[in-house]
Design a protein that fits this description.
Elements: E1 10-12, E2 15-18, E3 27-30, E4 36-38, H1 48-60, E5 77-79, E6 86-93, E7 96-103, H2 104-109, E8 117-118, H3 119-131, H4 137-153, H5 159-184, H6 190-213, H7 221-232, H8 238-245, E9 246-252, E10 255-260, H9 263-267
Parallel strand pairs: 5-9
Antiparallel strand pairs: 1-4, 2-3, 6-7, 7-8, 9-10
């Protein structure tokens, strides 16, 4: 419902020009700047207030709900060659379409030589690492090494940086309240409200982690095992585990590098 005739707006003087001489192609509508526009030129069938409300919902609605593939690592994978994000993409393999992660540059114009990796394979490896391998002696030693490197480079936030992050968190909270009001007033439906609510929660988690990230942390084995045990006993879903622990993943051919979301969260 985006046709302005619904609210009585009439326009004429538009020109239709063919895209091609080939009659099989559709014509392209070109709007003449001198076309005549008349308010209340035709009978309105809905009110202006309702029309404007619908246009607002068109602009703010979340992505198409028909997209059923849930890419758990969306926004967390970096290309080891060009630094671009990996994106989810359906690719034809063995006569059927399957979900993959692929460098966005390669996906757009083939300008990156990094490989695509099947969604099931990558997510399986990452989840196995976080649910099993990380609890082994080798996993503990790996975490200790990462924490030592982290402590060597950790720098406290300046007061200005801290204030900026707190302001961003506060703005997200206000945005969430506006979404709640929109839902209660009928502007947003439940699916749209839940989308905005989850988006706000994810952004707040990232910024909160950044606020506390640049502090030296203990890396003794006992503390790390204790925190890992607490994490294991929370019975998180795959998606919740990734959101809680995984910061990002870098992929370069066969090499997959994992960076935990917050090493501080393992030891504090």
């Amino acid at each position: 419902m985006q046709n302005r005739k619904y609210i009585g707006f009439f326009e004429y003087g538009k020109i239709k020009r063919p895209k091609s001489k080939d009659p099989r192609y559709k014509t392209q509508r070109i709007v003449d700047e001198n076309s005549v526009k008349i308010e209340n030129g035709v009978p309105a069938i809905i009110g202006r207030e309702l029309f404007d409300l619908v246009q607002t919902r068109f602009k703010t609605r979340p992505p198409d709900s028909k997209a059923t593939v849930d890419y758990l690592l969306r926004g967390r994978i970096k290309c080891g060659y060009c630094g671009s994000n990996f994106v989810g993409s359906m690719r034809q393999t063995h006569g059927r379409k399957e979900p993959y992660y692929i460098c966005s540059k390669k996906n757009q114009d083939r300008s990156c030589g990094n490989r695509a990796i099947k969604k099931e394979t990558l997510e399986g490896e990452i989840l196995k690492f976080m649910r099993e391998d990380i609890h082994s002696a080798e996993g503990i030693a790996w975490i200790q090494g990462e924490l030592i490197k982290y402590n060597e480079t950790a720098q406290e936030l300046t007061p200005q940086e801290t204030e900026t992050l707190k302001n961003r968190i506060a703005e997200i909270s206000r945005r969430q309240e506006r979404a709640k009001e929109g839902y209660l007033n009928g502007v947003l439906d439940l699916r749209e409200y839940n989308f905005e609510k989850q988006k706000a929660a994810d952004e707040t988690k990232l910024l909160t982690a950044e606020l506390s990230a640049k502090q030296p942390v203990p890396y003794d084995e006992e503390t790390i095992r204790q925190k890992l045990g607490q994490l294991k006993n929370t019975l998180l879903s795959d998606k919740e585990l990734i959101q809680s622990l995984l910061r990002d993943v870098a992929i370069k051919d066969e090499r997959i590098s994992v960076n935990l979301f917050s090493y501080r969260g393992l030891a504090q």
